[in-house]
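Reply to dn_fold:

You asked what the input looked like. This is it:
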Amino acid sequence: MNENITPEEMQEQLQLLKCKLESQRLVTRRHLLAATKKRLDWIDRHYRLTIVLAALAAIYCAVLLHWIGVSLWFCLLTSFYQFLAAGYTVFLRRSVKRIHETDISLRQKFDRIVRAKRLDIRWLYFSLPLLALWLYGFVRAVAPLAGAHDFLGGAVVGGIAGGCIGIRKVVLTHRNYRKALAELDALMLDENN
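and this is what came back:
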């Protein structure tokens, strides 16, 4: 240490150090906000893909089921369920888009992410029992058809594959929600200090 430093020089060095620390905070804040935006953009892309796939599945399932001889009512019910899933996903996507508004505080962003995550979980509470009911109806509608054994076997394999993909997407979506919440929480703590 240099013992010939005057108090004015020490004050100057202290100010320089404070400026450097403040610039580091700004960089960290910018990086955390960018990381949060990246996570929310991933969720938004996932929702967009889900909307497209649900709409295509509604048409495909209605045509395929009616073609193999399943009743028209069951085909329409299947399409309705798929369009309902697409509609709710549009609603979820809008809630994620509202988080990107620039004129809101970090606290409001945090609250909107919590709300979006909660809405995503509520869909599971509704859709999983409805899916179980649909599966029961599917087996009852397809079982009396000729060649149903082979068709049901393919449906089971497709259902298992679809379930695995769906579970993976739900886990990844909620992991991104959790990480975005943690990043905003760190920013709010830093802002309060």
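The chain is about 90% helix and 0% strand.
Hope that clears it up.
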